[in-house]
Amino acid sequence: MRILIVEDDKDVAGFVVKGLREAGHTVEHADNGRDGLFMAASENFDAIILDRMLPGGIDGLRLLETLRAQDNATPVMFLSALGQVDDRVKGLKAGGDDYLTKPFAFAELLARVEAMSRRGKGEGPTTRLNVGDLEMDLLSRGVKRAGQKVDLQPREFRLLEYLMRHAGQVVTRTMLLEGVWDYHFDPQTNVIDVHISRLRQKIDKPFDAPLLHTVRNAGYMLRVEEP
Amino acid sequence: MSAFTPIVTEAKPAGARPPKRRRLLRSAGVRFAVLYALVFGVSTVLLAASLRYSTIGLLDRQTHEAIRGDARGLAAHFKTGGLPALVLTLDSRINEDINENAIYLLVDPLGNRVAGNMSRWPTGIATPNAWYQVPVERAGKRSHALMRYYELPGGFQLLVGRDVSTRSQLRRVLRDGLIWALAAMLLLGALGALVIRGLFKRSLADISATSRAIARGDLTQRVRRSGHGDEFDELAETINDMLDRITRLMDGVREVSNSIAHDLRTPITRARARLEDAASHARTEDELRSAVDRATSELDGVVKVFQALLRIAEIEAGARRSAFASINLTPVLEDLAEFFDAVAEERHITIDTAWPPDLPMTGDRDMIQQAIANLLENAIKFSPPDHHVSISARMDAQQIEIHIADQGPGIPEADRPRATERFYRGEQARSTPGTGLGLALVAAIAHLHGGVLRLEDNRPGLRAVLVLPRRALNPEATLRIKLWAQTMRKTEIAPPAPE
C-alpha cells in the first residue's frame, strides 16, 4: 500500500514511517499542512495518516476538508493529541474515516490503517464470507466449518463476521470493542479475550488447524496457516 | 498562594493619566450625582413654569376679559343713547371704580378729549382692536397699563385699559422667589450628589478592596455585608458565593494535582527505573526487550489514568450535553450484562438480572454505557467466586434507578462519601489493578445527567445505585433544541441523526 503521513513531530513521524515500511508499505512523509495537502491532492495514496495540529497555515481539519471538497475519497485516519469526544466528532464530521489519539501503540495504528484502506476499496455487498474451510452465510445467518454446522449466539456471530471481514489482518481489542459492540470505553477486565476464547471453543477446538490466532502485543487475526 | 499571582506590568507610562475633569466624570458616583442634580433641577424648573403660568397667566387673561367686557358694555350704551349716554356711563364707571385701576379715554375726530380719566392720548397707540402695554402717568404716579382702543361711529375713538402695576409687582415677587428657590435647589442638588457619591463609594469600597485582595491571591477575603438587605448586600452575597465556589474549585484542583503527582509519579518512576536498569545491566537482548515491554505497559497505565482524568474533566465541564438524545436503557443493560457475563462466568460468578421491558430516558448513551460498565466491572472484580452479582433497574415517572450489587468486601460506611473522589482506593482494592477513577467517572456522568450515584451496604457487599432523571432538565439542552428547531425552520436542514 502507498501511505502518506502528514505529521510535524520528527520522532513520531520517523517511528511510524519505519514501522509501516517494515510492514511492507510504501510511505511518503510531509511535515507541514501545505506540503501535505499538495502531495495528497496531486498523488494517489491508499491511505493518509493525518495529524490535526500542523504548521504551515493549514491544519489537519482544513487539509481534509479541502481534499474532500475536491472529491478525493482517499481513506484518512487522524492521529492527534486532541482526544476529547468533541474533537473526534469534529474529525469524523470533516470526512475522516478513523481517529486515533496520541499516545498510541503502533500495532493499533497499523491494524487500523490496513482495515481502513481495505474498507476504502469498497467490496460491495456480500452475502457469503469464506476463510479456509470456514463459511458464513450472511442471509441465513448460518456458519459451517468443513461442512459441519457451527451454532453461534447472535453476538458471537457478529464477532466472527467482523473477524472474517478483516481476515488476514490484525484486529485489535479496541477495534473489536468498537466494531462489534459499539462500545467506546476501555474495559478494565480481559473481557474481549474471554469472548474470543469462547468463539475459539466453537470454531477451532473441534478441528485440526486453528484459524483464529493471537498476535502478541496487538490483537487477533483470522487466517489460514500456511503449511 | 502568592505564587499564583501573575505579575502585571503597566503598559501605559505613569504620566499618561487622563485629565482630572475626565477622571471625575468617569466615576460612577459622580455620574449618578450629576444625573440626580439634573433630574432635581428639571423638576424644579417645570414646577416654577407651571406656577407662573397659573398665576400671572390667569391674571393676564382676567384683565383681557375685563377690558373686552367693559368695551362691549360701553359700545352698547353708545348704540342706544349716543354720545351723551356714553359720556355719562364713562363718568359713572370712573366714579364707581374703587381700585382706581380702570382707564378710559374718549376723543373726538380731531383728537380732543371728550371724557375719561386720562389727560391725553398715549403715544404709540395707532391700531384699533390690538393689545398695548404702555407706561402711563396717572395722578402723578408712573405705572403700567394694558389697553386697547375701539373706533366708534362718527370718528370717535374709545380707549379702554387697566392699570397692571399690581401684576408687575406679583411678577417681581415670583421671580425673586424662583431665583431663591433655584439657588436652594442648586445647593440641595450638590449636597444630594455628594451624599450619593459618598454612599456609592462606601458601598463599593469594600467590594473593590476584596477584589483587589483576591487578585493578589488571598482567596480568604470576603465582602462585608451591611445587613440592610439592599441591592449592595445582594451583590456582596453573589460575589461571596462566587468566591466560595472558586475556592472549592481551587481546592479540588490542588487535591487532584497532588493525587496526579502521586499516582502518575509512581508508575513513571517504575518505568524509568526499569529502563535505566536495563540500559546498564541487561546482558542479553531478551532481557532488554522484556524490560522495555514492561516499561511500555507501565506507561500505558499512565496514559490510561491520564485519559480517565481528562474524560472526567470533560464531563464535569458539561461539554458533552450536546450528545443527549432519547434512549432506551433496557437494550443497553441487556448488552452490557451479556458482554460481561463471559468474564463473570470465567470467575464462577452468576449475574442476576431484573428490569422492565422499556426504560426510556433522555441522556448520552455512550456515557451511561460507560457508567454501568464501570459499576458492573467493579462488582465482578470484587465479588468472590461462586457468588452473585445482581443488576436491576426500576423506573417511576421522574427517574430510573439502576442497582448493581455484589457480595464482596464492600466499602466501610465511613469511607463511602470519599469513594467517588478521584484516586480513592479502598483497603481491599489496593492489591487489585485499577486507576481509582472508576467511581469518580460514574459520579461525574450521573451529575451531568442531573442524577446521583449512591453507595449502599448490600449486607454483605456493595450496592451501587445510579439514579438518573428520565428527562434531562438542563436549560442548556432545552436551549440547544430550541435553537436547532429555529435553524430547521430557516434552512430546512436534516435533523441531527439519532445516536
From TrEMBL, chain A:
Q: Which residues form a coiled coil?
A: none
Provide one Gene Ontology biological process annotation.
Answer: regulation of DNA-templated transcription
List, in alphabetical order, the Gene Ontology terms for molecular function in this entry: phosphorelay response regulator activity; transcription cis-regulatory region binding
Q: Name one Pfam family in it.
A: Response_reg
Any one GO CC term of the record: protein-DNA complex
Which CDD domains does the record match to this protein? REC_OmpR_CusR-like, trans_reg_C
Q: Taking every annotated instance into account, which residue ranges of this chain make up the domain Response regulatory?
A: 2-117
Q: Where is the signal peptide, in residue numbers?
A: none
* Keywords for the protein's UniProt record, in alphabetical order: DNA-binding, Phosphoprotein, Transcription, Transcription regulation, Two-component regulatory system
Does Transcription regulation show up as a keyword for this record? yes
4-aspartylphosphate occurs at: D51
Write down the superkingdom of origin: Bacteria
Q: Where is the OmpR/PhoB-type domain?
A: 126-224
DNA-binding region boundaries: 126-224
The family database entries (PANTHER family) matched by this protein are listed as:
REGULATOR OF RPOS, TWO-COMPONENT RESPONSE REGULATOR
Q: What is this protein called?
A: Two-component system, OmpR family, response regulator
Q: Which organism is it from?
A: Acidiphilium rubrum
UniProtKB/TrEMBL annotation, chain B:
Its primary localisation, in coarse terms, equals membrane
> Per the database record, which ranges form the Histidine kinase domain?
259-472
Localization of this protein: Membrane
> In the record, what terms sit under GO molecular function?
phosphorelay sensor kinase activity
EC numbers: 2.7.13.3
TM ranges are 28-51, 177-200
Residues in HAMP domain copies: 198-251
Q: Name one GO cellular component term.
A: plasma membrane
Keywords in alphabetical order: Kinase, Membrane, Phosphoprotein, Transferase, Transmembrane, Transmembrane helix, Two-component regulatory system
Family matches, as SMART domains? HAMP, HATPase_c, HisKA
Q: Which reaction does it catalyse?
A: ATP + protein L-histidine = ADP + protein N-phospho-L-histidine
**Uppermost EC category:** transferase
What protein is this chain from?
Answer: histidine kinase
